[in-house]
C-alpha cells in the first residue's frame, strides 16, 4: 500500500540537524504546517540547498515518520530568489513567514492562508504595491482568516454607528464608541477604521493607499501589531522589530 503524500509547500524556516541535515518547517497546501527532514541539505553540493531555503516553494512527495516527514522526491516550483536581493524586501518576507509560523498550529490545513502567502510574496517581489500597504493588508487578512477579524462596522458593545471618537480594544476585538470605551482601549481615527476595512477586503494588487500618509500607516501598523500579539498571546516578534527599523529608516 502506497503511504506517500504529495503536496505543495513553502519553507517558513529551517534549523540544522546533526552535521549535514536540516529540519524544515514547511507550510503545505494539503497538510498545513509540518516538519520535514532534509537529509544532507547542509552539504556544499547538495541539491537540497535550493529547495530548503526560506521562501522556496516546491512540490513534495513525502512519507510520514515518527517525528518528521521524509522526502521521497521534490520538485522546486519557485525559489523566490528575488526576495533575497534587497534587505528591505527580505525583512518584509521574513515577517510574513514568521507571522504564519506563530499563528498556525502544527498539521492544521488552511488552503486559504496557503494561497494568500503565495500571492503576497508574488506581490512583494513585483515591487508594484507599496510595501507598507502590503504589510498592513497581510496582517489584517491573516488575523481575519485565523478567526480574529476585527469588528469595525460599529461599536462592538452597544452597536451604535454614531460617535464623536472611536477606540480600538484588543481584548474585545473591535471598535468602541466614546460611551463604551475602556481603560485599555486606544483612540483610533475614523480614517484608520475605513482603511482597515479596505485592507481586509481588497485583493493585494488593489491595496495601494494614497489616502493615508506614511506616518499614519506606521501608526496603524503599530496598532495592528499589538492586536496580533494580544490574540496570539505572544510578547513580541523579532521579525517585526527588524521590519519596523526598515520602515523608519526609509523616512529618516
Class by SSE composition: alpha+beta
User: Spans with pLDDT under 50 lasting ≥5 residues?
Assistant: none
Strand content: 15-25%
CATH-assigned fold name of the largest domain: de novo design (two linked rop proteins)
**Strand order within the widest beta sheet:** 1-2-3-5-4
Helix content: 25-40%
Distance between the termini: 62 Å
Number of helical runs? Answer: 7
Average pLDDT across residues?
A: 92
What best-fitting shape do the alpha-carbon axes yield? elongated
Assigned CATH class of the largest domain:
Mainly Alpha
The strand count comes to 8
Q: What can be said about the biggest beta sheet?
A: 5 strands, mixed, barrel
Q: Output the helix-strand order.
A: EEEHEEHHHEEEHHH
What CATH architecture of the largest domain do you see?
Up-down Bundle
| Rg on CA atoms, Å | 20 Å
Superfamily (CATH H level) name of the largest domain = Recombination protein O, C-terminal domain
Task: Write up this protein.
The structure is a single chain. This protein is an alpha+beta fold and 252 residues long. The chain folds into two domains: 76 residues, OB fold (Dihydrolipoamide Acetyltransferase, E2P); 166 residues, Recombination protein O, C-terminal domain (de novo design (two linked rop proteins), Up-down Bundle). It is 39% helix and 23% strand. The chain contains seven helices and eight strands. The protein has a five-stranded mixed barrel with strand order 1-2-3-5-4. A three-stranded antiparallel beta sheet has the order 7-6-8. The longest helix has 19 residues. Keywords: DNA damage, DNA recombination, DNA repair. InterPro entries: ARFGAP/RecO (IPR037278), DNA_rep/recomb_RecO_N (IPR022572), NA-bd_OB-fold (IPR012340), RecO (IPR003717), RecO_C (IPR042242). This is DNA repair protein RecO. Belongs to the RecO family. It comes from Soehngenia longivitae.
Amino acid at each position: 500500500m502506497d503511504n506517500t503524500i504529495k503536496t505543495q509547500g513553502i519553507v517558513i524556516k529551517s534549523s540544522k540537524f546533526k552535521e549535514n541535515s536540516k529540519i524544515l518547517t514547511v507550510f503545505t497546501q494539503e497538510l498545513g504546517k509540518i516538519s520535514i527532514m532534509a537529509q544532507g541539505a547542509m552539504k556544499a553540493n547538495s541539491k537540497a540547498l535550493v529547495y530548503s531555503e526560506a521562501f522556496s516553494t516546491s512540490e513534495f512527495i513525502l512519507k510520514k515518520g515518527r517525528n518528521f516527514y521524509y522526502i521521497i522526491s521534490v520538485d522546486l516550483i519557485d525559489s523566490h530568489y528575488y526576495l533575497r536581493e534587497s534587505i528591505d524586501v527580505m525583512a518584509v518576507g521574513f515577517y510574513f513567514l514568521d507571522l504564519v509560523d506563530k499563528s498556525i498550529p502544527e498539521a492544521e490545513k488552511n488552503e486559504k492562508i496557503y494561497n494568500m502567502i503565495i500571492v503576497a510574496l508574488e506581490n512583494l517581489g513585483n515591487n508594484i504595491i507599496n510595501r507598507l500597504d502590503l504589510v498592513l493588508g497581510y496582517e489584517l487578512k491573516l488575523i481575519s482568516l485565523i478567526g480574529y477579524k476585527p469588528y469595525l462596522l460599529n461599536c462592538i458593545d452597544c452597536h451604535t454607528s454614531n460617535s464623536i471618537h472611536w477606540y480600538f480594544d484588543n481584548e474585545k476585538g473591535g471598535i468602541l464608541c466614546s460611551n463604551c470605551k475602556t481603560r485599555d482601549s486606544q483612540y483610533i481615527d475614523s480614517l484608520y477604521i475605513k482603511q482597515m476595512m479596505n485592507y481586509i477586503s481588497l485583493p493585494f494588487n488593489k491595496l495601494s493607499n494614497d489616502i493615508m500618509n506614511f506616518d499614519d500607516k506606521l501608526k496603524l501598523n503599530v496598532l495592528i501589531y499589538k492586536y496580533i500579539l494580544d490574540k496570539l498571546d505572544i510578547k513580541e516578534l523579532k521579525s517585526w522589530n527588524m521590519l519596523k527599523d526598515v520602515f523608519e529608516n526609509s523616512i529618516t
